[in-house]
Amino acid sequence: MRIRTFEEYQQAYKKSVDDPINFWAEIAQEFEWKKPWIKVLDGSFEDASTKWFVGGKLNITENALDRHVREKPHYPAIIWEPNEPGDEAITLTYKVLHERVCRFANVLKKNGIQKGDRVCIYMPMIPELAIAVLACARVGAIHSVVFGGFSAKSIADRVNDSDCKMIITTDGAFRGAKKIPMKETVDDALIGCPSVQRVIVATRTRTPVSMIKGRDVWWEEEIKTVSADCPAEVMDSEDPLFILYTSGSTGKPKGVVHTTAGYMVYSAYTFQNVFQYEPGEVYFCTADVGWITGHSYIIYGPLVSGATSLMFEGVPTYPDAGRFWDIIERHKVNIFYTAPTAIRSLMGFGNEFWENKDLSSLKVLGSVGEPINEEAWNWYNTNIGKGNCTIVDTWWQTETGGIMISPLANITKTKPAFATLPLPGIQPELVDDKGEIIEGNGVNGNLVIKFPWPSVIRTTWGDHQRCIDTYFKAYPGKYFTSDGCMRDEDGYYRITGRVDDVINVSGHRIGTAEVEDALNSHTGVIESAVVGYPHDIKGQGIYAYIIIDHMPHDASMTRKEILATVTRIIGPIAKPDKIQFVSGLPKTRSGKIMRRILRKIAEGETGNLGDTSTLLDPAVVDEIIAGAKEL
Ligand code: 7RM
Fold first, then answer.
1. Which of 126, 222, 482, 507 could form a disulfide with 107 if both were Cys (CB 3.0 to 4.6 A apart)?
2. DSSP classification of residue 535
3. 406 Cα nearest atom in ligand 1
4. Residue 504: closest CA among 272, 246, 273, 262
């Protein structure tokens, strides 16, 4: 499974294309199965019916825990670094983690959870979060982790979409200098969630919370009453493992469904090959488990691989902008995986935060979530990597389950800002808007993947047609990524960003339609249009054009109120960075908003706006340009 040279990569790649069935079968054999599969690959992209390792039986937690407990019980599985730098880090060995997962799995069963039930997890980055996730997998429950920054309404929407029977949360969360309520937000959400029968609350901040009789129980009390022995549920390869909601260009966030075997095989295979993890090393991914990166590369990929995964509760700037470098120094981190937005933000804080830190343990630096600009790539390479670390710029998506295009650390020759080459099993192609394949090198196009890989999205929860329409319809027989991409003279891939109405703010995916819906629910807002614009640190910022029923006397107050509404409805991550009040929006005769024009104005373009001849009222454009200058 492990590739060690560029020649081996080329051979593996060739085999994965010529003979994908045997290629993946050989890799899958290295895992622990309760019953072997009958067929490696079935179904088709046309109706989004891909299935892998059909008929196989397994439990992912036996691969992530039991297997390693037998071989190396005292090896650290999770090193947890708390928010407060003075507080001692906690190490959970594979044996301890296994015991705690089994115990909590019994708590789930005792509280009525059975195979196939959906469980929502709304927690900060504490070990109990990883334990809750794995305990769900142990009993065959489908976890749906909701990022701790989402609002009560966002929780309720997600819980209701998949009829979660339970929510696991904490009293509160520590985030830098702030203490944030969690249970209280869950309580607000639960006003509108009839499916939830039980709430399990773990203690973190000792914030007083309301506990409802017959519904709410304490984690610490529950685990006292159960055994530490919990046989793993027998799961089919294609039984859903989890749902993770992600934003698209239209409508509400979709529940992306990943299944058991394919996801396990692919997350572990890519973890080992991209990062080249060696026994004894410490791996640190700064993502939150609320996003796919945390699922695949804090929990499942590393643990299935028997690695040591460092999990950090806090934020990069607390107590100061040297926190990541301090963690790397103290825990002798070898592999560090973060987002370009964090790099750009830490670049701005000055040398004193990293110069005095010993970063010599580092071997591999990773980047994920958004395009990394050359300046940030070079800064990361020179100042953090000291020119001695390889940078892996990993392109992938919630829907792909694992890394798709990336260098293999110290194997693939890198190039600043390039995700470089596809991993074995991944067949990318560039196509134009008509679906014509763009051959050759030195070209640009829409990125599609023309052959299934084990962790491709299986469905969108409750609406399979939406999955087909979103990913498999634009280019029949191919998976459409919604990303634009260039392939340079060397055949290297560089992802240029989304080609749909999704904005990538600090590596978080936000749908413009969702933000517009939130804005439109604010009193006085008649209509709104949201676009992304280049932002030095966040990558993209959110720019909202708003038609309001009458111009406010105090525009800054109205802006604040509008932001409060967006925070209530979605969460603080969706707050527009700029709000411009306008009297009209540039629309075509058929009533479609011409976002292209709004995007250009948001970028600061005033002259060349392209063809505006189809506009109903071209005068509105001049007004918007004038207003944008004053903002
Ligand atoms: C892993 C993750 C997916 C979107 C994707 C891209 C963008 C992610 C890179 C990247 C350029 C990268 N999942 N993206 N990684 N763009 N280079 N290395 O982020 O579902 O939350 O977002 O993120 O646009 O479509 S995600």
1. 222
2. E
3. 18
4. 246
Instruction: Report whether residue 395 contacts ligand 1, using a CB cutoff of 6 Å.
Output: yes
- Digit-coded pLDDT (tens) for 77-112: 999 999 999 999 999 999 999 999 999 999 999 999
- How many angstroms separate the Cα of 620 from the Cα of each of 31, 526, 594, 602? 62, 16, 12, 15
CA of 111 to the centre of ligand 1 (A): 37
The boundaries of the domain holding residue 569 are 502-630
152: pLDDT strictly greater than 90:
yes
Q: How far is it, in rounded angstroms, from Cα 626 to Cα 553?
A: 20
Phi, psi of 442 (to 5 degrees): 70, 40
**Position 509 in a domain:** yes
> Which CATH number belongs to the domain containing residue 524 in this structure?
3.30.300.30
Residue nearest to atom 22 of ligand 1 (CA): 397
Task: State pLDDT tens for residues 439-496.
Answer: 999 999 999 999 999 999 999 999 999 999 999 999 999 999 999 999 999 999 999 9
The reply to whether 52 falls in a domain is: no
Confidence of residue 173 (pLDDT cuts 50, 70, 90): very high
Contact (CB, 8 A) for 107 and 223: yes
Residue 271: DSSP 8-state? H
Of 48-52, 178-182, 223-227, 605-609, the range with the lowest mean pLDDT is 605-609
The CA-to-CA distance between both ends of the chain, in Å, stands at 55
Answer whether residue 610 is part of any domain.
Answer: yes
Q: Which of 483, 498, 502, 510 is the best mutation target for the ligand 1 pocket, counting ligand atoms within 8 Å of the beta carbon and taking the most?
A: 483
The count of structural domains within the chain is 1
List pLDDT tens digits, range 218-247.
999 999 999 999 999 999 999 999 999 999
Burial state string for 541-554 with b = 16 or more CB within 10 A and e = fewer than 16: bbbbbbbbeeeeee
**423 pLDDT above the threshold of 90:** yes
List strand residue ranges (DSSP E) for 380-511, in order: 390-394, 428-431, 443-449, 459-460, 479-487, 493-498, 502-505, 508-511
Nearest CA among 300, 247, 243, 263 for reference residue 119: 243
Q: How far apart are CA 209 and CA 258, in angstroms?
A: 34
Mean pLDDT of the chain: 97
Which pairing describes strands 539-548 and 578-582: parallel, antiparallel, or unpaired? parallel
Is residue 590 one of the residues assigned to a domain?
Answer: yes
DSSP state of 112: T
Residue 405: CB within 6 Å of ligand 1?
A: no
